[in-house]
Amino acid sequence: MSRKLIQSGMAFALVAMAVPMYAQGRGGGRAIEKAPGATAPSLDSAPEYVRRTAPDNPGILRIWEEGMQRSQVATIAQVLLDSIGPRLTGSPNMDRAQDWAVSLLTSWGVDAKKEEYGTWNKWKRGVAYASLTAPRVKTLDATMLSWSGNTNGQFVEGGVVILEPYSTAEEFRAWLPTVKGKVILSGGPRLSCRSALQISQFGMPGTIESLNSEQAALTATYRGLNQRIPTFYQDVKDAGALAVFESNFSAYPGVQKIFGSPRNNPLPTFDIGCEDYGMLFRLAQNKQSPVVKLMAESESLGEQPVFNVVGTIKGSEKPNEYVLLSAHYDSWEGHSGATDNGTGSVTMLEALRILKTVYPSPKRTIMIGLWSGEEQGLNGSGAFAVDHPEVIEGLQFSFNQDNGTGRVVNMSPNILPENGPRLAGYMSAMPAEVTQWVRLGGPGGYGGGSDHVSFACRGAPGISLGALSWDYSNTTWHTQRDSYDKLIIDDVKNNAILTAMLAYMASEDPEKSSRKLMDPMPQVGGRPMTIPSCRTPMRGSQASQR
User: In 3-state terms, the chain is what percent helix, strand and coil (to 5)?
Assistant: First the structure.
């Protein structure tokens, strides 16, 4: 998810898992205790669209039975996340993931293809490793960043130098001779890698105050030093540097934010875990002669075509009107891209599988879009919207999911208010087991930087399915901990059933969805809000830019 407004969802307590979680090591484990109040909200106070009786719509009943009794969520997710893994835009892994998705959709009888929308710099990850070798030996918590340079498959070893703060290009160039044969620490460390919650709970007032002020000063001193000089990475490589280390702490112990280095970066670039980075910084600062040994394999494959995966079940009565299941398929490479956005992609795949099984001849055309390039600026979905004006023109609804594994708990008609009652009507046909969690917001802003905006900005009904957080922002979003085990399968299963039911009701709706804007439009900063501007998708030569 790019440029995100992370939605925490409704404040319902989490449902306890039904399976035990085992402690590390021998001796059995301890079951997860049920949190106080971890039950469904009372139907007495639920909105009117939450049914008090069993559903009677035959299509809804078929979707419920298929999704509950023969769910493929866990199977789809395990292959995608464990076997294929992360899906960096333009990478060979994304090629594998897209080919697999097309094959999977085709096996279900869905007309599926990879649709080219532009080019991007292709980069292939290899093995990478870093270790402290002096004054003691310790394997470092190190992740090579996407688009990093390499060591030609050879181990290299050298001392550690801290990037000296500078104000001018002349000061930077005067410092460059110190980097020959060295690994550069490009920013300041965290003074404590504990969580802010721990510090606030246990720290004395003076401790908290001094930590905050010292950290603020340290961060300000080193912020952006590797970005002020446009040719920074090439300059330090030319001066003989071995690698650049940086550290992007997620605010939770042991968790790092993992993004990418500048594209076409000629130098190996690693994110180092908060604790290890702080250790390296202190060793270098105190002149204790730290030495690092590292190896990095990667391959830059040049600018090559990039694709979306598009699947279609053609409508039997209104083939030129569309219901679109939307999720971005690309991810960063910290781990498996599980909750950003494997879960959204699995939700849409399973929803389409259910629909193809129990509703094979929809009235409107039902499509799935698994977009690439979302993390680089909604490029895949934006290009699809530009290339397919007929879909924008005929779009009944698009439903997009992109904020983690949790149950969907909110959605909104955005600034198309007449679609609010329509969505409520759809949900009134569904079982309370699904809709009891969902709160339909009133008209308002679009919120969030995900692919629904590519459709909403063009006046089409783009709906974001907002989910419970499960500590998404700190724990999994763009981190090296975003792995299969973070999935809450029951929640993803719930979301797939909800999405399939929304798509079914949208397909069956005898009326076209509304495109009538709010009147008056809501105020933002004292002025009426407007439809958000549509970003121009990057398709070609821009791929080589940072």
Answer: 35, 20, 45
Q: Which residues does residue 128 pair with via DSSP β-bridges, in sequence order?
A: 296
Instruction: Look up residue 237 and give its DSSP letter.
Output: H
Q: For residue 37, is pLDDT > 50? A: no
15-29, 103-117, 515-529: range with lowest mean pLDDT:
15-29
What the block records as the tokens of 534 is 């549509």
Do 446 and 415 touch, CB atoms closer than 8 A?
A: yes
- CA 164 to CA 379: how far, in whole Å? 37
- What average pLDDT score do residues 236-263 get? 96
Q: Which helix (H) or strand (E) holds 387?
A: helix 379-387
What DSSP string runs through 257-326?
Answer: B--BPPTT--S-EEEE-HHHHHHHHHHHHTT---EEEEEEEEEEEEEEEEEEEEEEE--SSEEEEEEEEE
Strand partners, 444: none
Residue 176 backbone phi and psi in degrees, to 5: -55, -40
Q: Which residue has the tokens 């893994």?
A: 85
What is the C-alpha separation between 531 and 462, in angstroms, rounded? 12
User: How far apart are the C-alpha atoms of 380 and 372, rounded to whole Å?
Assistant: 5
Does an H or E element contain 366, and which?
strand 364-371
**Would you tell me the crossing angle of helices 489-508 and 343-358 to the nearest 10 degrees?**
50
